[in-house]
Design a protein that fits this description.
- By secondary structure, the chain is α+β, with helices and mostly antiparallel strands.
- It has a domain of 102 residues.
- The protein is built from 4 helices and 5 strands.
- It has a 5-stranded antiparallel β-sheet with strand order 3-2-1-4-5.
- A hairpin with a 7-residue loop joins strand 4 and strand 5.
- It is elongated, with a radius of gyration of 22 Å.
Length: 160
């Protein structure tokens, strides 16, 4: 029963916390950043473990960390040494990481699926979306076991 209660109470908090890095204004309210840049996959220390982080180098002379770049971008984009035409914006109303909306090679061909990037952002921004539903589905068996055991316990106390 404890697992069911903890899972049910904890999952909305976890889901909300997970959505925070994706918050803020979206284009057209958020200013777009456009330019030519290189994507680099870099190992960075994140607490006690190393994490792979994608950096976008050289757009307007600035470097940006790409939010979810290691999973969002096709594997041939980071560390390719190839410059890309990039368009995107900063999450958290300009205080967060970079989110690409368009990535094209210098010939104008799409290097990353725009629809995948759009759906990933929408999914991660929604604190009460599929992550929360998945966590509640995970706790459902705990509730069923707890209710079943409670019924057995009640019947045994009634002498049935």
């Amino acid at each position: 029963m404890t697992g069911a209660i903890v899972g049910t109470l904890f999952s909305p908090i976890y889901s909300y916390q997970n959505s925070l890095p994706y918050r803020g204004e979206l284009p057209p309210a958020a200013p777009l950043i456009r330019g030519i840049g290189l994507f680099e996959l870099i190992n960075q220390k994140n607490g006690f473990k190393n994490a792979e982080v994608v950096h976008l180098r050289g757009i307007n002379g600035k470097d940006y960390i790409v939010q979810d770049g290691e999973s969002l971008l096709p594997s041939n984009v980071p560390n390719s040494g190839t410059p890309f035409l990039v368009e995107g914006f900063l999450l958290k109303s300009g205080r967060g990481n970079f989110w690409p909306t368009t990535i094209k090679d210098l010939h104008g061909n799409n290097a990353a699926n725009q629809e995948v990037m759009r759906k990933a952002l929408a999914l991660n921004r929604d604190p009460f979306g599929s992550l929360l539903v998945g966590m509640w589905l995970f706790t459902a068996p705990f509730w069923m076991i707890s209710i079943f055991n409670a019924i057995i316990l009640m019947r045994s106390r009634e002498g049935r």
